[in-house]
Every structure is written in C-alpha cells, then in structure tokens.
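In response to the reviewer comment on reproducibility (Comment 2.3), we provide here a single inverse folding case reported in full, input and output, so that an independent group could reproduce the run without further information from us. The structure tokens appear first.
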C-alpha cells in the first residue's frame, strides 16, 4: 500500500496514545475499563476489570499479578471512539516497577493521572508527576472516587499546585461534597449533569443534563457552592488554556467516580478533542523525526510467556512515523540487521489479532522478536535511531543462584532473557563467576517476578543471596581499575559491558568521591 503524507497525517491526527497512571489502588484499572465502556469497546464492566478473586482484567495475565492484585506488565488496549483510535497503554502501578513505567511512558503522547479523592497526592503520584515532567508529557488529572468521603475539592486543587507547580484547569466541578455526589457542573456551559446510575457501575451511566435554573432549584446550596468554587478558580487564573496543557504548565482537571463511570464520558470527550496527537519524535541526536517520514518504530516493552500455550516473546513497538505494514522487512537500527515483521499482532489482554497496517501512535506486538530490546529502533528506508533507555540505577542487589545444579543451562538462558526484557539488571564479575550473577533491581518486588518467571518459563528455580549495597554508579574502565583495589566498593560489569561501582550506602559513595572526585561525578538529578 502506498500511503501519502496526507493520509499519514490524517491517521495520526485521529489517534490518541495515552497511559493511565496512578498510585496503586487509585482506580487505574477501573478507569481504563470505564473508558472502554464509554467508547463501546465493551458493553459491560466486570468482564475486563478484576483483581484477586475476580475475573482477570485484560491487562492482568500473569498469575502473580492476579494473585497479588497488582499489574506488573503492561498491556495495550486499542479501541475506537467514533472514527478515531485510542491506544491505551497500561502501566504497572507499583513503585517497584517504576523503570517499566518509565519505559512505557516513552511510548505515549499524554497521560491521565488518577488521584484518590481521600488520599490526595501519594508517594507514587509525586514520582509519576516527576516522570511526566522529565518526559515532557501533558497530564490530564482525574480526582477519582468522588462517590466516597474524601478531601475538599479546593484543597485538592491547592495540593496539586503546591506539590507539582502545575495549576489545575477544572473541566468539571463536583456538585456535592465527596461521598455526597449529586452530579457534575460544567464550567464552560454552566450546566449540570445528573447521573442515572447503573447498578454497580457495570453499564454505561446515563447523564441527565440540567440547566443552571433547574440545578439551582433542585440543589440550591450544593449548586451555589459548586458555582462559587469553580468561579473562584477562574479568578485565580485557572481558566482553560490548551497551550498551557500541552506545555505541561497546567493540568486539565476532572472529578470522577470511575467505579460508577461518572465523569468518564467528559474525560473521553476531552481527550479526543484536546489531547495531543502523535507528533515528530526526537532522534538520538535530538533532531525531530517527522511522522510523515519513512516507517520507524520504537520498542518500549518486551514480554515473554504472555501466551502460555506458545511461550513466545513479544516486543511492543510504538509506530513513530510512516506506515507499518505486516510483512515489511524493517531494519533493526541497533544491529543494522533486517527484521521481518511477518508476525505482527495487536494484543488485547489475552486476545490477539493480526495487524496488517498501523499508523503513527499505534502499538504493535512483534512476535518472536528475540533480537529486540526495550529502547531499540526499527526503521525502513531512511535510517533513524531514537535515544535508547538509560537504565535506572538499581538500589537492591542479590546474587542469583540456581536451586538445581542440573539446570545451569536453563538458569543462564532465563537470566539472560529477563535481562533483555528489562525485568532485572544483570551484573557479572570475574571474582563471582558466570554462575553467580548479581541481579540489580529498582524495587524488591522485581525479584519476585524473576523467581516466578524463571520457574514458569524456564523451569529453573532461583535462590537469592542478599547483598548489602544500595547505590550503583556507572563508571569507565579507568575508574574500574582504580576502584577495584578498594575495600569499600565493588566493581561489576553490567551485561552490556558497562563497568558499575556498587556502594553499601550514599556515605560510602561520598567517601570514595572525596578520594577520587573525577571518577564518580554525580549524575544529573541524582538523589544521593
Ligand atoms: P489500580 O488499578 O489503580 O490499582 O486500582 P483499581 O482500579 O483496581 O481500584 C482499586 C480499588 O478502588 C478497587 O476496589 C476499585 O473497585 C475501587 N475503585 C476504583 N474506582 C473507584 C471509585 O470511583 N469509587 C470507589 N468507591 N471505589 C473505586 P477493591 O476493593 O480493590 O476491589 P472491588 O471493590 O472492586 O472488589
């Protein structure tokens, strides 16, 4: 198929590629499902969403995820809203998987940030806001669970401003306090939506629009309060400004009850009307690579064992430019080797369908992509490479050993595989030997994933021996030669060959830095 620039632009303009992110339990899965419900991709909630003891969500396929009720790996849901297409990329909520979340956020154009009305800004919310800032991602904020008693609406707005520096631009405002939700005021039209709830929120909620006069007559006090509060914010300069939203200076704000799917229709409508569409992406040199250029794609996630029957390996790629056609032979920029794309699929939880054509913003699963790693680029025609991921500095270290001496081969293969997928970082040293790799994690729960995956995918049990390190710094070969002589740090090599120095704590690092200031400069944004 010959696609011209006009067609590529049209397709890109009709796409929204987003992630829903939050501190765990704020309602990420519930909201994702409510979005599907309102787009008519599903007709009944509960079919998709579920935690421990409930039916599995489309995004939770690993046993561990189901057992613990957390989402470890990211799935991609594509659905249509009218003629437009939404690619909703799921992210793990738990802080231990923040490196994975960071990678996923490289694949989206905007995020929906959920805040629990009762809990306000939580630890992971703050981290995620920081990641969005680093990634220059516009943020739509949703204050969720308004059906339950929680904080005051104005206080929440204030908290967002003081903690993130971003002013909120309310796109709806609650009529009634949290836990006593009567409906939502729409500041632009000064009307109210009252909702006819479906039992348990399983079906799409119906909005009943009320004029200001009717709202005032029916809910004199609550309507007045809502009008006053929302106009207070406008006086405070919090009127809607799309440029400020796209420049991450301000965040459009919605109040919602995801579980009753209230406020979701407005959110989806806003996303389609105002949300950013795919645009030029910076290449490794920092130059913009236009969406109308030849085909290019960016791998942000590699996952094995999604399909238990096949145990295959699937690489998720976001299309950055041009048109992707199944069967095309792309080039893997990191190796300059050809990469055939015969098996390209769209993954909807456990379900898969073959993808024949995909456009900028779409996410395609490439099956049996054993040579691809997160951060890799595929292109056709003009050569391009997007910036690779810089690994997070791990803070937890354990020596991994096979529990069964006869399974050395499986053990090695499994560890190598999980390293390639970015599940864990793997380090070696001559002193420790190849059979005793050091595994480095940003959060300890990653070790549980390693253990579960090694057992289920490679039939090799792993035992861990904790190491008393909490700080890692990438170094060069000269520094490695000098630091290897010291007793207060250990030099290992990451599997990509980069030497890394490990320290028990930031104070040990400081001591070594004092002795060799030029060897260990602090990376930008370093917390130690
Ligand atoms: P997560 O993906 O961010 O971790 O959160 P998830 O959607 O799984 O929601 C966490 C809990 O919060 C769930 O309750 C869910 O039903 C509830 N929840 C989500 N949105 C709302 C909302 O708008 N209002 C209220 N009241 N609750 C909400 P759970 O107890 O873990 O499970 P269950 O009650 O669904 O069985």
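Designed residues, in position order:
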């Amino acid at each position: 198929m010959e696609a011209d620039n006009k067609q590529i632009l049209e397709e890109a303009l009709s796409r929204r590629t987003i992630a829903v992110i939050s501190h765990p339990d704020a309602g990420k899965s519930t909201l994702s499902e409510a979005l599907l419900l309102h787009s008519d991709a599903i007709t009944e909630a509960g079919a998709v969403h579920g935690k421990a003891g409930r039916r599995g969500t489309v995004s939770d396929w690993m046993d561990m995820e189901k057992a613990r009720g957390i989402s470890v790996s990211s799935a991609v849901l594509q659905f249509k809203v009218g003629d437009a297409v939404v690619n909703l990329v799921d992210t793990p909520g738990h802080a231990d998987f923040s490196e994975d979340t960071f990678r996923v956020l490289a694949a989206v154009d905007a995020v929906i940030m959920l805040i629990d009305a009762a809990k306000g800004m939580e630890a992971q919310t703050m981290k995620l806001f920081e990641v969005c800032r680093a990634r220059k991602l516009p943020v739509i904020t949703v204050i969720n669970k308004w059906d339950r008693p929680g904080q005051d609406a104005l206080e929440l707005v204030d908290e967002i401003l003081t903690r993130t520096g971003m002013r909120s631009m309310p796109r709806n405002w609650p009529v009634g306090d949290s836990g006593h939700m009567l409906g939502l005021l729409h500041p632009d039209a000064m009307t109210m939506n009252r909702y006819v709830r479906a039992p348990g929120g399983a079906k799409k909620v119906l909005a009943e629009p009320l004029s200001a006069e009717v709202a005032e007559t029916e809910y004199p006090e609550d309507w007045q309060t809502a009008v006053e509060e929302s106009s207070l914010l406008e006086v405070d300069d919090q009127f809607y400004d799309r440029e400020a939203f796209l420049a991450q200076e301000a965040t459009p704000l919605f109040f919602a009850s995801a579980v009753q799917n209230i406020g979701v229709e407005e959110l989806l409508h806003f996303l389609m009307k105002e949300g950013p569409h795919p645009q030029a992406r910076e290449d490794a040199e920092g130059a913009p690579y236009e969406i109308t250029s030849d085909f290019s794609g960016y791998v942000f996630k590699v996952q094995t064992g999604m399909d238990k029957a096949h145990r295959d390996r699937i690489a998720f790629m976001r299309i950055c430019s041009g048109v992707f056609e199944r069967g095309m032979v792309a080039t893997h920029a990191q190796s300059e080797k050809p990469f055939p794309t015969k098996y390209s699929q769209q993954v909807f939880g456990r379900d898969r369908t073959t993808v024949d054509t995909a456009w900028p913003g779409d996410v395609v699963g490439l099956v049996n992509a054993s040579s691809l790693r997160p951060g890799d680029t595929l292109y056709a025609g003009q050569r391009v490479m997007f910036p690779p991921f810089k690994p997070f500095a791990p803070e937890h270290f354990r020596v991994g050993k096979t529990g069964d001496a006869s399974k050395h081969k499986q053990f090695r293969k499994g560890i190598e595989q999980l390293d390639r997928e970015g599940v864990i970082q793997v380090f070696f040293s001559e002193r420790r030997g190849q059979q005793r790799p050091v595994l480095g994690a940003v959060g300890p729960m990653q070790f549980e994933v390693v253990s579960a995956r090694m057992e289920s995918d490679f039939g090799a049990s792993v035992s861990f021996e904790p190491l008393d390190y909490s700080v890692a710094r990438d170094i060069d070969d000269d520094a490695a030669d000098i630091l290897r002589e010291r007793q207060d740090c250990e030099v290992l090599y990451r599997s990509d060959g980069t030497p890394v120095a490990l320290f028990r704590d930031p104070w040990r690092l400081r001591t070594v830095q004092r002795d060799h200031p030029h060897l260990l400069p602090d990376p930008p944004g370093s917390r130690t």
